[in-house]
Design brief:
- The chain is about 40% helix and about 15% strand.
- The protein is α/β, with parallel strands linked by helices.
- It folds into two domains: about 10-210 and about 355-385, Crotonobetainyl-coa:carnitine coa-transferase, domain 1 (Rossmann fold); about 230-320, formyl-coa transferase, domain 3 (2-Layer Sandwich).
- A seven-stranded mixed beta sheet has the order 8-7-6-1-2-5-14, with helices on both faces. A three-stranded antiparallel beta sheet has the order 9-10-11, with helices on one face. It has a two-stranded antiparallel sheet with strand order 3-4.
- Strand 3 (about 50) and strand 4 (about 55) form a beta hairpin.
- The longest helix is centred in the middle third of the chain and has 22 residues, at about 165-185.
- The two termini are about 35 Å apart.
């Protein structure tokens, strides 16, 4: 579903939140130009990386073209402003004040292009005591309650094992941009707007349900699981998850485990009763499941229509018959690694385009913007633009 075909997006952002938001638009058909400094977006060197292509650099730049330009120089700023004149969307995620110093803030862009949708992504917003605070993943997970939410019972807070705040914010930003484009298209004036997305607010919004639960049931001792039994269980050769949503499912589970008498036990007669004895019932289920293989138990539980799943690693997920049937992954030729398996964007319906190297498309983008060969050579010679030679 290439809903953004024909739209041009200037991605001035670096890191994860902004680039991933722009990558979503790219994978939905937009022409996304990644504008990064000649040294490259800093995320290219974070984590394991080869030739400036880390996992986050690949994931955050799929479907884009890269123009490497030093926007801190007058000539580089003019390049960006020239491209911004015809852009539909501009995305940035620097600390408040940085884009204004560069002369690339919303006011500067809107003066040239009143219809532009300008999306700013920051950690904590444009004012307040934490306006200038660095918003790293660990800081946001701690600050917004995510690390506390992810704590094991009685254990210390712990962060989720991926960059959750950035990716959540990217999703909210992409949705907000889509809504703003719709508003512009349905407005007689066709005027753009400045969208302000913060990682802190995005994380809070994403956790609406557990936050409401915490407000309603503030006493930790009164908190209980939603359903029981429900947990991760170790079988003879691997881990599975099993959950019962209602009493009928519990009766089917009890029968499948060889203990139909559980259904007649007052302690397990209802979900409320089972939740009051969750530790006991999870222990009993775990002891039984440990007696046979994951495949054997999953087959039996599936036949009994009980919620269950293997706990997969990524290779197992890619190889699973369901994911293969739905063609949820695509193999792409991603430099410098060769073939790489990448998940599709839901409802995108488009072949996945590899992420670019730094400045891979600099020359062709400048040509499209009306620069002559001589002007491009001058920008390259001055170090304003990086255009790698084939």
């Amino acid at each position: 579903m290439q809903v953004f075909h024909g739209l041009t997006v200037l991605d001035l952002s670096q890191g994860i939140a902004g680039p991933v938001a722009a990558a979503i638009l790219a994978r939905q058909g937009a022409n996304v130009i990644k504008i990064e400094p000649p040294r490259g977006d800093w995320i290219r060197q974070v984590g394991a990386s080869r030739e400036g292509m880390s996992a986050n650099a690949i994931a955050g730049n799929l479907g884009k073209r890269s123009l490497a330009v030093d926007a801190a120089t007058p000539a580089g700023r003019e390049v960006v402003l020239r491209l911004a004149k015809s852009a539909d969307v501009v995305i940035e995620n620097f600390r408040p004040g940085v884009m204004q110093k560069l002369g690339l803030d919303y006011a500067a862009i809107a003066a040239l292009n009143p219809g532009a949708i300008y999306c700013s992504i920051s950690g904590f917003g444009t004012s307040g005591p934490w306006v200038g605070k660095a918003a790293t993943d660990s800081v946001l997970q701690a600050y917004t309650g995510m690390a506390a939410l992810n704590a094991a019972p009685g254990g210390p807070p712990r962060r989720f094992g991926m960059y959750v705040p950035d990716n959540i914010s990217a999703l909210y930003a992409a949705q907000a941009i889509g809504a703003a484009l719709y508003a512009r298209a349905t407005s007689a004036k066709g005027i753009g707007r400045h969208l302000q997305i913060t990682l802190a607010e995005s994380c809070a919004a994403f956790q609406t349900a557990p936050m409401v639960d915490a407000f309603l049931f503030s006493n930790p001792a009164a908190k209980r699981p939603a359903v029981a039994p429900s947990s991760e269980f170790q079988t003879a050769d691997g881990w599975v998850v099993v959950a019962c949503l209602d009493d009928a499912m519990f009766r089917r589970l009890a029968a499948a485990l060889g203990h139909p008498e559980w259904s007649n036990d007052a302690r397990y007669a209802s979900n409320d009763a089972r939740c009051a004895h969750v530790a006991e019932i999870n222990r009993m289920v775990g002891e039984i499941l440990s007696s046979d293989s994951a495949a054997a138990w999953l087959d039996k539980l599936e036949q009994a229509d009980v919620l269950c799943s293997p706990i997969n690693d990524y290779p197992a997920l890619r190889a699973h018959p369901q994911m293969r049937h739905t063609r949820s992954f695509d193999d792409i030729e991603q430099a410098p690694y060769g073939m790489l398996s990448v998940p599709h964007l839901p409802a995108s319906g488009r072949a996945i385009v590899p992420a670019p190297r730094v400045g891979e498309h600099s020359a062709v983008i400048l040509i499209e913007a009306g620069y002559s060969a001589e002007e491009i050579d001058e920008l390259i010679s001055a170090g304003v633009v990086l255009a790698p030679q084939e």
